[in-house]
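Work Package 3 (structural annotation) set out to generate three-dimensional models for the target panel prioritized at the project kickoff. During this period the team completed the workflow that converts sequence records into discrete structure tokens, so that structures can be stored uniformly alongside our sequence database. As a representative example, we reproduce one entry of 161 residues exactly as it appears in the project archive.
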Amino acid sequence: MIAKHISLAVFLALIVLVAAIGAAFEAGLWYFDMNKPGWAPPAWAYGPIWAVTYVLAALAAWQVWETGHQRRRGALAWWGIVLALQLIWMALFFGLHRIGWAWAEMGLLIGVTLLCIRAFHGASKQAAYLMLPFLAWTLYAWVLNLVIWSVNGGLLGRFAA
């Protein structure tokens, strides 16, 4: 029973580590000064939304681990790549202010998240379902990223003028 709680703590610690590293890339004034669509969430909402999706993702990974399924290591490798890509997006968007590159990278993140969900489904359907809020929020953030990029002179901004 203790091992079960330790494994849960490990997955939660990994998520906290990703969130902590990501938090080092502050939004800053440059982000708040950019044009954003009216449907963009208020700044205070991002933390709680990411926290919920991260905790659900950690629970999903933990459930896959606990299944003992022969393919769990492969499925969890996809999960690890998802976390790494999430950090890269935060570094590109908030750290380097490369909104276009961040949008493209987030497209890759979405694809890898879909592969992760598929791999999780093979071990635990419930774990796959627990990843769906992360996917949904990432899809929303991907569209928001594109719109922010576009209305601030990026890819589609030339066509909107």
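The chain has a mean pLDDT of 91.
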